[in-house]
Design a protein that fits this description.
The structure is a homotetramer of 266-residue chains. The first copy, chain A, has twelve helices and three strands; from the N terminus they run βββαααααααααααα. The first copy, chain A, is mainly α. Chain A has a three-stranded antiparallel sheet with strand order 1-2-3. In chain A, a hairpin with a 4-residue loop joins strand 1 and strand 2. The longest helix of chain A is centred in the C-terminal third of the chain and has 25 residues, at 241-265. Chain A is globular, with a radius of gyration of 23 Å. At the A-B interface, strand 1, helix 1, helix 2, helix 3 and helix 5 of A face strand 1, helix 1, helix 2, helix 3 and helix 5 of B.
């Protein structure tokens, strides 16, 4: 017996001869000239436009995620662009492939940790929750997401600024409070500085804005996509990918030939 | 003789223990809470923050590019997410791979056409330039980029709105004028409606904002990245990829078995 | 104090004016005309050419992985090719992005499970190991990798054939034996048919050939890359991506308009 | 009026409860243990198994394409793997994104050039065709695809070996002859050594095997996919991506800080 087909549905957007509708709103009449790209991203993710407060906080989060200098992802985008300049989209795509657990895991993991804790018991006493979380991670010898930074010590300068913006917009709530208590408890338990890093702050603010943790990595992806196109614009003006490639290839090739030569001689 | 190493340089961003600097600006002091994501994209692409007028026009361009319903790219992102839900970044990357000549070629091609025409002679008489361009494309039997639309007839509603926003911000200049003259001349030469479409309008506005045409596709990529994350957010809430896949696989599989069966029988 | 640079090294390949060396072998003298693509893959992964027995088993594994009909990955490659026909490599790349946990997890997971079990105690009694593994997975309510198949019941026809080839080449050893005992024990514990599926068989054979489980997914990626190029060759001759796209877009668009209309009317 | 749905069809593969059929052949009975991966690729691309002669030549072409040392694509795959080790498929995909015009353009372009020339007039006198082609490229100041190599001078060692294998298998025909005449004519016209390079040889052999030039890049993609998985296997055993990244980031960051400092001081 053949499978029964089921209906499919998507409400993201549609158009007619003279209209373009996005999330139920008329693109030209209700969006163009009225909302910025960050607000549009909020609309795409949630189905509704942000309040001015949500807009301020969400744009700050996204702006934080855009640029981090010559990351591996930026190198990747530049190397692909050098090899396939006719397909700029593939260079950005290749760079985004690297927004994985090592680089984007912090905000996703922090959002997951906070949501699971407060979904189970929305009225829980936060200090007790923080103690339980830290004990659980310590017991599993797992790294607590969103804490500590290799360079920014003792504090990550992005975190207080992001929380300040959240407070100014009445969006510094229980998730931020829990994240801060987790950091305090972790510093006590591990007896070393473990400040909330930028991705931890963003993970907490994802929760305050009501985003499912499953989409937190997507917010990092949006920010990085902007940054990678920026790096390609610089690469077009001032190329460095070829030099980076030649240096590495020369070193490996010279070394491999030496090894090969001594193997042959031996 | 070994190759001499050359210095490499990138001014996109760097950080110290207590500072993050992007494009020479302090992230926490000069950017967070002050600029939106569209402005940040402008900063990344050009090295300077936009004026309020540039911000208005650039954000409108980006917002236009975000959402187009269930495009092939959106389907791709959803299908990859279904297959590799643990790697959301790869789903967006796969979708972006499809922002190629068929979908993003319009704005890139229009920007190239306009820039090449007005770079050669910045003071050229625009109507003559338009006639020469249309004659050239016709002679080569090439499609003029940025004109015509399969659905939006006789006009693409995005174009007048984008040009209206540009005019309100003193950014409706010679590139837009040339694009409009090209459309008029093309309609005359081909004797059918060939209005400036959304990507044509965006290509012309890229020129007004001073972007190199080589990065125009990158602006489409930024917009689409936002849209694709939006589609994944919807896919998580309301999945359709599996049904789309099963329908296509069932149909092809049934048909292939029938063919095979009749080949065996014959 | 600046970081001290460390040497980098890669022995994959290098060339001089008149030679190309791959893995220490002369490409034109020692490889071309002498080895097939599967053997070359073995050389790339392990640094040495396969024995005839290893070649037979490894090629059979790879051949198994190539083609699975209109998978989500094949649909993805076709949709991207339709959107960016000038960048065929991006279409394959997009398709490969979907070789994730859902589709390639089986062989990776099975190889990991088997290697961890027999690394801990290479001389362990296999039946006891199998019982411990099944009990562990049951206790964690986790799915045992490499067992069961939605369509191929009660047995996956690929498994006996792959194990037969392995036996004929003296490569059906303790890993295959353990996998089979796990299947028997799982069928007993869960009281339903749980035969070793194709990816489970391949995972076990990865172990017999000495591959680290961390690279098992790479073997699936190689097979799928071949298959995706095959689908693009068919798509060029006999396109279906546009129709697949239009059907889905039409259905979603029509439905969204209806919903929007009734919202407006209410 | 709604669009009329059209049937879709794919004959790549399908399966039933107890059978897997690929290209009309039974996977377990007719393929496993009987064909190698290169033959399987031929089957996927053409719908039929290769003759022994075709198998020899096609495997040699594929083997040639696998490994080229630390290419930009290999660096990309390694950098992505370092950032997202959990998604090995995305690392290969990112590397493949760079198999574009700069690296894979040679074989595609050569195949296109040869096919267009001999399709127009299959019985044309080859020397005259070669002269016309060289004159055409020179007139357009375009680079003739498949000729010349930065390192391999005066000859690319892969070319004579590949043509030798083709001759030994009765597959050195008119396309190879035309490619050789083009090289002779180009060396005469440009008055410098312009030997057929490896990609040029492969482009000509694609024609001898009857492949459409539109899929020639796909053959490079298959070879590179194998090589990239090889590089990831080495990266797992002996990582270099982090060092490559840190060197580049350190240099750019130090330089950018100096510039910034002098700007602040001025």
């Amino acid at each position: 017996m053949p499978r029964q087909s089921k209906p499919i549905q998507s409400n993201m957007g549609w158009s007619t001869v003279d209209r373009v509708v996005v999330q139920g709103l008329d693109l030209t009449q209700q969006l163009l000239g009225k909302v910025n790209l960050g607000d549009m991203a909020f609309l795409e993710l949630t189905g509704r436009l942000p309040t001015p407060q949500q807009s301020a906080v969400f744009n700050a989060m996204l702006v934080t995620l855009v640029e981090h200098g010559l990351t591996p992802q930026a190198m990747v985008a530049r190397l692909v662009h050098m090899s396939a300049p006719e397909a700029l989209q593939a260079a950005v795509a290749a760079g985004l492939c690297g927004v994985g657990s090592v680089f984007a895991g912090g905000s996703e993991g922090a959002a997951k940790m906070l949501q699971e804790a407060l979904t189970a018991d929305p009225k829980a006493e936060l200090a007790a929750v923080a103690r339980a979380i830290v004990a659980d991670f310590r017991g599993r010898r797992a790294v607590i997401p969103g804490l500590g930074h290799a360079r920014h010590k003792p504090i990550d300068p992005r975190t207080p600024r992001l929380f300040e913006i959240a407070a100014a917009n009445q969006l510094r709530g229980r998730y931020v409070a829990l994240m801060e208590l987790i950091a305090v408890e972790a510093e006590r338990a591990y007896n070393r500085p473990l400040p909330i890093n930028g991705t931890g702050a963003i993970g907490a603010l994802c929760c305050e804005l009501g985003f499912d943790w499953r989409i937190a990595r997507g917010i990092a992806v949006i920010g990085r996509a902007v940054g990678l196109v920026g790096h390609l614009a610089e690469e077009i003006r001032q190329p460095i990918a070829r030099e980076i490639h030649l240096r590495a290839e020369d070193e490996c090739s010279t070394q491999a030939q030496k090894m090969h030569g001594s193997l042959m001689a031996s």
